[in-house]
Amino acid sequence: MGLLDLWRRYNSMPEEDKGFYRRKLLDAKLHGRSAFAQYGEDVNVMEMLRTLGRKQITYVDIGANDPVLHSNTYLFYRDGSSGLLVDANPDICKRIRAKRPRDVVENVGVAAKSGPPLTLNVMDLDGLSSLSSDWSDRLEAEGLAKKVKSFEVQVVGINEILEKFGKTDIDFASVDVEGLDFEVISAWDFGRFRPFIFCIETGIVSAGKLVRDSRFHELMKARGYSPLFETYSNTIFIDDQA
Q1: Mean pLDDT, consecutive 10-residue segments, the chain of 242 residues?
Q2: What domains can you pick out in the chain, each with its CATH number?
Q3: Which of 145, 174, 135 is nearest to 158 (CA)?
């Protein structure tokens, strides 16, 4: 397809679609890439959702971390969508609220069910902070990250968080809670809250190699999901029942 054909195709698009592609071009010019997620998961998922007519979506980001850098949901937000972001670190939640005022932000730790406060181990790499002391200790022992501070945080069960959010028609869910992912997703009530697409960190961080945790594939298959594609650390699953 030549440049003239591309120009004609662009001019025939609805204004909403023109804006989408202008933003993609701007991202490529300013950032050298069109994705904000670490391994480009957001771009691939967005293209699929748009192809299916889902241009304004609802997302849930459990273990959101930075509002922009390596965010699996910022691209959707920047394109006009909104959703729920959850993070245990109050400093991160403050940054999220400032950058993404349309989103609902919950400053709590997430577990399989609600319980007493747990200790959040904040690492020098924000994305590796965790409520799991075993996880944090292993990262420190392998030289992957250093613990900079620890403090107690409120812990809320995943289904209570989703119920409070109040939306059951979820297009995209991202779960990255560093060491507690399997427990959280195992407890997820798929009968009430059934995302169309799931992004799950299935890679186990290690200094020597990356290992895929096969339990997630077995769990998601039992819940009626199939793997759509994988990146270095994440697997994208799609609902077979949709």
Answers
A1: 48 60 52 75 94 95 95 95 97 97 98 95 88 86 89 97 96 94 97 97 78 93 97 95 90
A2: 36-239 (3.40.50.150)
A3: 174
